Amino acid sequence: MKQVIQTATRREQKVVTRDRLVNAAMLLFARKGIVNTTTADVAKSIRMSHGTVFLHFPKRDDLVIAVIDEFGRRLSAEFRRAFEHDLGLRAVLQAHLRVLEEFEPFYSRLVTEAPMLPAKVRSTLMLLHAAVSYELFSALERERKAGRARKIERPLLFNTWIGLVHHYLVNRDVFATGASVIAERRETLVNHFMTLVKP
Amino acid sequence: MAEKCPACGSCGMPMERPEDFALGDVTRPYCRHCTDARGELLPFDQVLATNARFYVESQGVTPAAADAMARAMLADMPAWRDRQ
């Protein structure tokens, strides 16, 4: 029995340590940039040994991907929650922006540095985009069948939305007066996009 | 941290619902997209093509870029990491 408890505690401890690392990495990536942050920097920021970081994340890319995965899980949960109440395109756009706001400092760095990041990291981000594209297009098709939207090809629908949002995120220093450009521009962005898709 | 769910050992897709798993069986390591009607893992080239198509259809990237991104994603997956 004692052995079982010890094993469970060790497993829980491992999860706690991993979560601490992911949170610390997210903060540091946001502050210093992803390219400029090393695993040693992350370890130092939470007074953890570099060896412990290495145990959980042998490469810096693994840590970046873990943060992106965390973003992806939140996004997926938020879409699911949105669908429980409303299947409309506006609800999908708002769910997307809620998670972007939550991860805004990190995500802005991620999209700014994306072309410079290793293939696996960039591919992970593009895969998340693919998931958002699927949700947007499904919602648009539902609106179209109800006569509330026009036909738009899936890649262009997504690229128009993400291009708009990313422009504000990458240049958030000139578009926001406070900490979050998404918080300040949410309604404008959603309303504008809904106007664009009207029949 | 958000609740974690298992991921497909072939493509990495999160498997949140039973229907995401091969044959709807939550003990299976791979998702329904990476397996055939008997629940067996599909050949690498087929999984690669499916994943590459996902990038093309969702964002309109070039087939070459999609192929490279799909390869990058699959390279470290348990199902393919020892592939020569």
Strand and helix layout:
The complex is a heterodimer of chains A (199) and B (84).
Chain A (H helix, E strand, L loop, with lengths): L1 H31 L6 H7 L4 H7 L3 H26 L3 H14 L1 H10 L5 H27 L8 H17 L1 H4 L5 H16 L3
Chain B lengths: L43 H16 L3 H12 L10
3D structure, described in words:
The complex is a heterodimer of chains A (199) and B (84). In chain A, 80% of the residues lie in helices and 0% in strands. By secondary structure, chain A is an all-alpha fold. Chain A has a domain at 60-196: Orthogonal Bundle (Tetracycline Repressor, domain 2), CATH 1.10.357. The longest helix of chain A is centred in the N-terminal third of the chain and has 31 residues, at 2-32. Chain A is globular, with a radius of gyration of 19 Å. The mean pLDDT of chain A is 92. Chain B is mostly helical. Helix content of chain B is 33%, strand content 0%. Chain B is built from two helices and no strands. In chain B, helix 1 crosses helix 2 (63-74). The longest helix of chain B is centred in the middle third of the chain and has 16 residues, at 44-59. Chain B is globular. At the A-B interface, helix 4, helix 7 and helix 8 of A face helix 1 and helix 2 of B.
